[in-house]
Amino acid sequence: MVQHRYLGNSGFKISEITYGNWLTHASQVENEAAIATVHKALDLGITSFDTSDNYANTAAESVLGEALKGQRRESLEIFTKVYWPTGPMGPNDHGLSRKHILESINGSLKRLGTDYVDVYQAHRFDYETPLEETFQAFADVVRQGKALYIGTSEWTAEQLRDGHALAKSYGIQLISNQPQYSALWRVIEGKVIPASEELGISQIVWSPMAQGVLSGKYLPGQPVPEGSRATDDAGGATFIKRFLADDVLEAVQRLKPIAEGAGLTMPQLAIAWVLANPNVSAAIVGASRPEQLEDTVKASGAALDPAAKAAVDEALAGVAITDPQKTYESSPKARLT
């Protein structure tokens, strides 16, 4: 069964394998299959579920809410996010203004079929809204009982410091950040993780398998597999491009004997690698079919010994992206309406 870890400097625990529905629910996967996959996640011991109001322009939240209907709410940890455009994408349907936050939390709760979310996350940093306004609104959301904790996604070390200070001044807890992190994308290690450790913030990481590249199914010099994320022009193909160079794919193939030596599959190795970082509380995984989860959840509790972790680092040396300046490129400098 899936193990649980504390999130940030709090008494709140989440499943270290967290189910996420970006690019799948109400998009790549029919609703019936999506609901079956969520039920499989529950059967396997996953209790934490991550979504966002902008996934499939709010529809993904509705699918997740339907899938979780009838479950004991107290036994679940539900996370959602606010920032990206939703609805008709008008001038106030975007960002971290008080108006957008307070309207968005109400919409998310209705779609998810719950009175509260466990963690409400700022999906990016909003350069066009004063940070004080954003955290005053978050504090009101928490005091109204609509969220228990506040998190962020893809914030820089400096933004986390400023946000943490404001959260503390308003009497609420900023306990998490949700960045991209994998053995191939390590940009948070230089600044974000040290700042987070100091502040009592931990990471809920997305794309621990580098958009599936670390599964080993993409081969150097070969066409990408039909039906894979690399062929999905609706979103997946854009994100995976950076990892499809032959030198990267050749390096990934060097991970196979390391995985075999550790008694793991390639996907399990990728997830175990990120979970070996003590500042990581959970790795978000998605699935288009229930059976896919049976493999990935086995990474929970699979302690990667130092020699195996060092071997992964050596195999990917020269192709893994580590530049901490990349963390400053994640949030748009202006809203995209």
From TrEMBL:
SUPFAM superfamilies: NAD(P)-linked oxidoreductase (SSF51430). InterPro entries: K_chnl_volt-dep_bsu_KCNAB-rel (IPR005399), NAD(P)_OxRdtase_dom_sf (IPR036812), NADP_OxRdtase_dom (IPR023210). Residues 17-315 form the NADP-dependent oxidoreductase domain. Pfam families: Aldo_ket_red. Gene3D superfamilies: NADP-dependent oxidoreductase domain. It comes from the Bacteria. GO terms for molecular function: oxidoreductase activity. Belongs to the shaker potassium channel beta subunit family. Keywords: NADP, Oxidoreductase. This is Aryl-alcohol dehydrogenase-like predicted oxidoreductase.
